[in-house]
Amino acid sequence: MQFSDGSSDMEWRLQLRGMDISGPRDIHVDANDTSLTIQLKHSGSLMTLMETDSLFDRIKSAETIWLVALLRILVVDGNLDDDQLVINLKKQDPELKWPDIVESWESSTAGSTQLLRGTSIYIVGDSTEINHKVAKELAVGLGYTPLETKELLETFAKQTIDSWVLAEGYDAIAEARDVLLESLGSHVRAVVATLGGQQGAARRADKWQHLYAGFTVWLSTTEATDEDSAKQEARRHVEDGSLGYANADVVVKLQGWDADYSKTVAQASLSALKRLVLSDRKLPDRKSLYIRLGCRGDWPNIKPPGWDPSTADDSITSPDTL
User: Fold this and answer.
1) Strand order in the sheet with 35-42
2) pTM of the model
3) DSSP letter string over 238-283?
4) pLDDT at residue 321 above 80?
5) How far is it, in rounded angstroms, from Cα 68 to Cα 238?
6) Which residue, 19, 92, 180, 293, is most buried by CB atoms nearer than 10 A?
7) Is pLDDT larger for residue 305 or for residue 322?
8) CA–CA distance, 153 with 130 (Å, rounded to integer)
9) pLDDT of 75 strictly over 60
10) CB–CB of 225/168 below 8 Å?
11) So what's the pLDDT on residue 18?
């Protein structure tokens, strides 16, 4: 297989040597939105060469019919020239560079570099363990710096979080955690695993001002049995005003937890972030501006320079250029 990405379209070549194909009628291609199926008639039956419903991004579904017509089979004297199938697909977003034709861990990490543009990621949720495992996978895949608030706090205190709670209570941890998050707010190209449970800053509305410095991914377990049910559950939580769901940039639902699937969850997180950034390409720049103005808590409606959250009129709106 050979894949190349142009500006508005892509070309995908498949070697067909030795498959005894007489011509175009033996090839069937079905392309639609995020799916692609390629089949060929071989020895009287259909053989599937490729079938995926996870293209790296969307193709122009309205052009599906003539996209198939763009299938070019090079025929010389009744035989396939060089035994190649060449397919051209039109992108939905011509500005997005496709690392590969399908969405995988490798293409997701490579493609996220152009979209995130160095913006840090904060993994938030109720489980410190899950946050840590997924953040570690993301950091390795993206080439970002992995930062774990639990490890940093325990190194500072020279004791475990549990023993710290017993000795000084939750307030002592909260105070140190807040100082830590404030210092991390200026970091770029980092994946930060936050504390979960009672120690987590994500459950405190007044602590999100530092989390807004990066893209926040809320990880939450669910008893939903399918994707649609999980999405409906997340929407209900947002509508109910559940803090983590309402404030996070994206929400990823997990059917239980197994550390062996950390990379799968990390890929789902990148996929969600990709869709978010593609919906608003200015988001990374606005995150950068938010940091430069001091992480004042005015996300997403960034106020002009000089705005003071403790005294300024909240009715002041930022310029359109923000």
Assistant:
1) 27-32, 35-42, 45-52
2) 0.85
3) HHTT-HHHHHSSEEEEESS--GGGHHHHHHHHHHHHHHHHHH-TTH
4) no
5) 41
6) 180
7) 305
8) 18
9) no
10) no
11) 65
Cβ within 8 Å of residue 282, ≥6 positions away: none
Tokens 């996978």 identify what position?
A: 137
User: Residue 220 is inside which H or E element, if any?
Assistant: strand 215-221
Single out the residue of 94, 125, 117, 296 nearest to residue 206, CA to CA.
296
Rounded Cα distance between 318 and 295, Å, is 15
| Residue 31 near residue 102 (C-beta atoms within 8 A) | no
CB atoms within 10 A of CB 255: 13
Q: Which residues pair with 47 in a beta bridge?
A: 40
Burial class of residue 27, CB neighbours in 10 A (0-12, 13-18, 19+): buried
Q: What pLDDT, on the 0 to 100 scale, is given for residue 85?
A: 76
2 is written with which tokens? Answer: 């050979």
Plot region of 85 (φ>0 → left; ψ -120 to 50 → alpha; else → beta): beta
